[in-house]
Task: structure prediction
Amino acid sequence: MMIKRIAFKTLGCRLNQFETDSVATDFHSAGYEIVNFNEKAEVYVINTCTVTGQGDHKSKSAINHALRNSPDAVIVVTGCMAESRKDELEMLEGINYIVDNKRKGRIFDLVHSHFNGTASRVEDLTPDVFGFSAAVRGLHTRNLIKIQDGCDNFCTFCIVPHVRGRAVSRPSGDVLGNIRRVLDAGYREIVLTGVNISRYNDAGIGFESLIEKILGLEGLFRLRISSVEPDGFSKHFYHLFAHEKLCPHLHICLQSGSDRIISAMGRNYTLSAFMGMVNELKGRYPLFNLTTDIMVGFPGETDEDFRQTCNIIRDVGFSHVHTFKFSIRHGTKAERMSGQIPGRIITGRSRIIREISDANKMAYRRMLLDRKQVVLVEKTDHNGYARGYGEHYVPVAFLNQNAENNRFYRVMLQGIRKGSGDMIMEGVCEGGLR
Result:
């Protein structure tokens, strides 16, 4: 079989990104040429998102782009939109396969058999939410590791439990084996991902125990925890961040600063409990970096509710706020709630949150000035600046034309540069680590 070109497009969360990376590894290992999504290809795989209306819109745009770009290509649509809007997608002419999340890890088998003339049906593939290869295509710096899938919370606005299913945890031995393989392949940063990873539990091994086991692995690497729910962690969890390999950053999903709205959302915490977590982390590690999700325009959100949200964002000092505009998801309780907020008000509130977030980001960057960060270099630009992220998950640039990609460097931070879309910290390199 002649070499086929394949292009991928990933929308939405880090879990989707891990799954795409794994599928891409399968194709790369089999000799397929992976090309940019805007290029001509024989295969397009679109890993969709349906968490918000914007996710739906971007997913549809990507599908239409692939259909226009190469009308004769094999088009595979997977991800959460393939679950929630399958009937609608089946009406689009040109899509060859619509693959649900439970069979996403078998996309290579599906496409490869298509070209071999032994095409399979999607429903004949064995479902397995953890049936993904270790994502080791090429040599990057950061590797996403899926440890969990699904969610049992059923928040009133959220469609995820409907499209990802109930919560399940990946066997800890598989997780550790996956991490060992990617470390041996040269990765230096591990990011744990899933739908609700703080609920991880494999035969009595909980989230905190899993982290301990990972930190005990040999090698020069560091560990990041991706987005978590505010589940009321134990004191031991906070103590884990004293380990040099565990990065002092958490993205904890707050959603609202109003207890009334938190309750209406069906969230399993109070503002007081959330602040207890914040105080534990900030009390132990004053420079700990906290980021969050905020939803604006939830049904019934008053000006006072919104004011409370703005105040808590300022009080906590989140260095970044991922702002969501509420959008109705079919089948959720929020779809039927009264007090739907007009779009213009939602847009205005979203803008205010972004402005507060930008001010917080600058304030946090200033706190890091004249301090050291261990930066994992991802690339060096044409001006000789090496770029990467410090352990606190801030972007850093330092002048060193000889800096090696995928190597740790100790950098003294001395300035802040406002770049396009972010505030990059600049520093002076004090030497590399091996």
Remarks:
- The first strand starts at residue 5 and ends at 10.
- The mean pLDDT is 94.
- Residues 372-433 form a domain with the OB fold (Dihydrolipoamide Acetyltransferase, E2P) fold (CATH 2.40.50).
